[in-house]
Amino acid sequence: MKDVFKDNVFSAREWSAPVMVNTDEIRAKIESYCLVGKTIKRMKLIGLSYLHDRYWIEDQAYNVQYYLEEDERQRKSDYDNIAPDLCLGRFVQIDEPFLIEFDDGDVFEIDTPQEPEYRFSMNCIPWDINAGTNYPNLDADRFFAPCIGRTIKAIEIKTYVTDEHPMYGDYFDEEHSEYELVANIILRLDDGNGIRIGGFFDYCIVDYINANDKQCDIPFGDLKLALLNNE
User: Fold this and answer.
1) pLDDT digits (tens, 9 = 90+) for 189-226
2) 170 CB-near residues (< 8 Å, 6+ apart)
3) How many angstroms separate the CA atoms of 69 and 66, rounded?
């Protein structure tokens, strides 16, 4: 029996969501959930965001302050010295599902096990599920705060055509046959911004984007409030 998680710990093997690669299958499946018109109540990361430990935050702070002299850049990238108004990318890198609960009680669950695969479901994972790999380190409601209370107005499936497997880099076959793959899924919100979900090797990237599909920022001061363990 699927969707019965022992000790309330998430297991990908026990999740009933199918592994999908075919673009038409992915599009039809997500459209069947009728997400358009639903309003976001809260969000959750089951497990760890790999970009939000101290090391990676310092690394991001260093990268965005490229305009500083090296000594000053190093100093202002130290965790304790990062300015509250320094803007970092509002995105996460995860390997367990991202959950969105709507105001009608439905919960959408999505993950990308590895490029170009997608898995998603509705009302299959308990909201209070515990991480199966690494403990969560980020409060998704705080991190993606601008999305709370927003209504989904459209589902956008972004695709591309390639003859190479995105995960392994080799050709699909000797004939160099081309396939249409899903690059990402965007939940477009009623303010024009969106939640973009896509694969990156064997991780899932979820980011908050503007109407032009550019990634939005989060001030470090707000990010600190979203960290579950900022040590």
Assistant:
1) 999 999 999 999 999 999 999 999 999 999 999 999 99
2) 164
3) 8
108-139 residue pLDDT tens: 999 999 999 999 999 999 999 999 999 999 99
Nearest CA to 2 out of 125, 115, 134 is that of 125
- Residue pair 176/168 in contact (Cβ under 8 Å)? The answer is no
Tell which residue, 204, 206, 27, has the closest CA to residue 116: 204
Q: CA distances (Å), 184 to each of 98, 118, 171, 192, 211, in order?
A: 14, 9, 21, 17, 15
Residue 181: strand, helix, or coil: strand
The answer to whether 98 and 111 have CB atoms below 8 angstroms apart is yes
